[in-house]
Amino acid sequence: MKMAELGEFGFIDRIRAGVASSAETAGVVRGIGDDCAVLELPPDHLLLTTTDMLVEDIHFRREWTDFANLGRKSVSVNVSDVAAMGGTPHHLYLGLAFPGTLPLEQLDAFVAGFLDACRFYQVTLVGGDTCSSSGPIAISVTVEGSVPKGRFVPRDGARPGDAIYVSGTLGDSALALHLLQEGKPVDPFLLERHINPQARTRLGPILSAAGIPSAMIDVSDGPVSDLGHILERSGSVDALVDEEALPLSEPFRALLQSDRKLLRLALGGGEDYELLFTVPPEREHLIPEAAQKSGLALSRIGVITSGSGILTVRTANGEEYRPARKGFDHFAG
Ligand SMILES: [Mg+2]
Questions:
Q1: Sign of the CA dihedral running 255, 77, 139, 228
Q2: Number of domains the chain is built from
Q3: Distance 194 CA to ligand 1 centre (A)
């Protein structure tokens, strides 16, 4: 069947059928199919809302894309921002613009991947919009989550003396992209980290409930850039990061042996979707329990000092340098 035969409402019905068959999140009074979604927040919680766009040829290329993973990733990158506030994601909205000539199998694969990720993160698609595009595919996802009052973790809370921690391992996604671009074989673990990253939606609420982080962000643009956001927003602080302390996966370490320069990917590469957070000294003793509960390694990679927003990296032999901040800017020349 072609999209022209199915029509917009036929397509929406297909999505709705997929949602109905997946587990509903508590709090959905009315989902897809009315003028508005009707939702309930858990008592004494604040609403968290975030939105993100993925545009063809800017964020992904149709000939390189597996549509199921594109659907999964468009959920993961959004729920990751809710985790970065210490919250739990609940509901999603999907805005989708695509050319009428797009094969229906690709759309179905996208929706299947999207709903698969919704089940994984226990979030429900409750609304959205579809329209035709005269050019590229555009995907806009909005997610709503919640956090108990007084428990949300901002970016601006880092203070001198706080330790800097990160979950999981760094640089895997950027290394996979680097190998793909070089036309080299990619280790399956690294490839999975790139095409199907997992947002740390269990860890975020565990950290906030225990009152551990003073500031937190998810690693989407790379630790240098994302830690830079914490420094900028917190004001009057610097950061000193130990290269030796960066948590690296086994496949990453194996390749690093033959090319030390790859280490820059663990600092500057993006899309790991790990959580990067600062911890006051008196709360560091709570870290092992949070690591155990979340099933994730939590590594201390540096310390916050008083200063003016400068990030310094110390190498194994004690040399110090300031890495260039080059998070992706869509409108930079
Ligand atoms: Mg973020």
A1: negative
A2: 2
A3: 17
Residue 23 has pLDDT above 60, yes or no: no
H helices of the chain, in order, are 3-21, 67-83, 104-121, 172-181, 188-195, 203-209, 223-234, 250-256, 263-268, 287-294
- C-beta of residue 200 within 8 angstroms of C-beta of residue 168: yes
Domain boundary among 148, 177, 212: 148
Q: How far apart are the first and last CA of the chain?
A: 43
61 Cα to the center of ligand 1, angstroms: 22
Q: Return the bridge partners of 53, or none.
A: 140
Its domain, for residue 264, covers 163-321
Tell me how far the alpha carbon of residue 54 lies from the centroid of ligand 1, in angstroms. 14
Least confidently predicted of 59-68, 142-151, 180-189, 210-219? 59-68
How far does residue 265's CA lie from ligand 1's centre (Å)?
Answer: 18
User: Which residue has better confidence, 2 or 251?
Assistant: 251
Distance from the CA of 79 to the center of ligand 1, in angstroms?
A: 9
Separation of CA 105 and ligand 1 centre (Å): 31
Distances (CA, A) of 283 to 162, 194, 211: 9, 32, 8
Min mean pLDDT across 207-211, 262-266, 323-327 is at 323-327
Q: Measuring CA to CA, which residue among 207, 224, 201 is closest to residue 81?
A: 201
189 found inside a domain:
yes
220 Cα: distance to centroid of ligand 1 (angstroms): 6
Do 198 and 98 lie in one domain? The reply is no
